[in-house]
Amino acid sequence: MKDVILTGDRPTGNLHLGHYVGSIKNRLRLQNEGNYDKFYIMIADTQALTDNAERVDKVKNNIIQVSIDYLSAGIDPNKVNIFLQSQVPELFEMTSYFMNLVTVSRLQRNPTIKEEIKQRGFEKTIPIGFLNYPVSQAADILAFGTTLVPVGDDQLPMIEQCREIVHTFNNIYKPKTPVFKMPKAIVPQSQILSRLPGLDGKIKMSKSAGNAIFLCDDEKTVKEKIMSAYTDPDHIKISDPGKIEGNIVFAYLDAFCEDEHFKKYLPEYKNLNELKSHYQKGGLGDVKVKLFLNNIIQELLTPIREKRKVLLTQIDEIYQMLFDNSKKASNEAKIILQHMKDEMGINYMNLLKK
Ligand code: TRP
After folding, report:
1. 61 vs 305: CA distance, rounded Å
2. How far is CA 56 from the centre of its chain?
3. Residue 25: helix, strand or coil by DSSP?
């Protein structure tokens, strides 16, 4: 048996470079290796509502935006099932049964939930749905027999919770044939890829912090953002020695630059180490490094932008794809849901004498 891969995003904003290095790149690699039985990417619109109850329009609009972001970045709809969480009712039925297997205090100890409660000022006003989203996320994963979940490291506690639910389910119901596979997370290889910093150098790149370069930004906007990125405030004259740590331009070069970029755009250096040591010694200006980074990022984003233009003329087809794919996903999830209910002994229709 090959792997079943499932991952997803909340549709709360366009995808940016942080998503690109933190998840899209991994997904493209898995897609192109082709070493799987099924590959699902779920647009988690219901999960997005758990902290956006009064912002339905924002979530609704971002369903199509995120779909276009995936397709323009190279996710191939012939290889990957991109579907919409809300259109798969089996997930919510499964969630209801899982909710009885997890305590409130366990959810309150989830480090990602704790952090998000703080960020959102939910200390005294946590919506039940929000606190419960790790349980619902376990259903997203388990309903398809998922074995691999490519995610950023902030999602590791969710996978842990999911695995706990499998153990608890097995302990309580002692299924005669196993219902669930034990899923594993795949995270990006390095810290910088998991948490790409924002342009301001302060925190992780995010739409809400206003420090992001989006996949859909035009050429001019990208260049302006890169030219304004935070570097080393003590590197004033070109001849001054510069610092690499905390310097966002070098952080992005760590994430995006390959040796061949030097041949193309900056042949006086062989590789990033050479560029870094020149910067540290002094004699290398920020503008030169920023223009180099701009070339690399534009090379990545130009084909994505071109593809986006075409996709914008195919909105109806994209919605149709989402609905067809969700129907398929729903039929697949039914199988594990029925198996689960059989093992729990709650398929009451079986009480009818045939
Ligand atoms: N929680 C994920 C995020 O915020 C989105 C998500 C929902 C997800 N269900 C999932 C990710 C299942 C992986 C697997 O990005």
Report:
1. 19
2. 21
3. helix
Give the Å distance between the CA of 193 and the centre of ligand 1.
18
CATH number, domain with residue 305: 1.10.240.10
The number of residues in the chain equals: 354
The CATH number given to whatever domain includes residue 186 is 3.40.50.620
Model pTM score: 0.94
What is the whole-number distance in angstroms between the Cα of residue 204 and the centre of ligand 1?
A: 18
Q: Whose CA is nearest to atom 14 of ligand 1?
A: 7
Q: Are residues 94 and 233 in the same domain?
A: no
| Angle (CA) 148 21 227, round 5° | 170
Q: Is residue 108 part of a domain?
A: yes
Any ligand 1 atom below 6 A from CB of 9: yes
Give yes or no for a contact between 34 and 83, defined as CB atoms under 8 angstroms apart.
no
Instruction: Let me know whether 119 and 253 are in one domain.
Output: no
Residue located nearest, by CA, to atom 9 of ligand 1: 137
Pairing of strands 36-43, 3-9: parallel
Instruction: Tell me which residue range forms the domain holding 143.
Output: 3-196+315-351
Which residue's CA is minimally distant from atom 15 of ligand 1?
9
Mean pLDDT confidence for 115-125: 91
Kindly state if the Cβ of 196 falls inside 6 Å of ligand 1.
no
Q: How many domains, the chain?
A: 2
Atom of ligand 1 nearest to the CA of 140: 12
> Mean pLDDT, to the nearest integer, of 274-302?
96
Domain match, 158 and 22 both: yes
Strands (DSSP E) along 76-156, which ranges? 81-84, 148-150
> Would 150 be classed as within a structural domain?
yes
Whether residue 299 has pLDDT greater than 90: yes
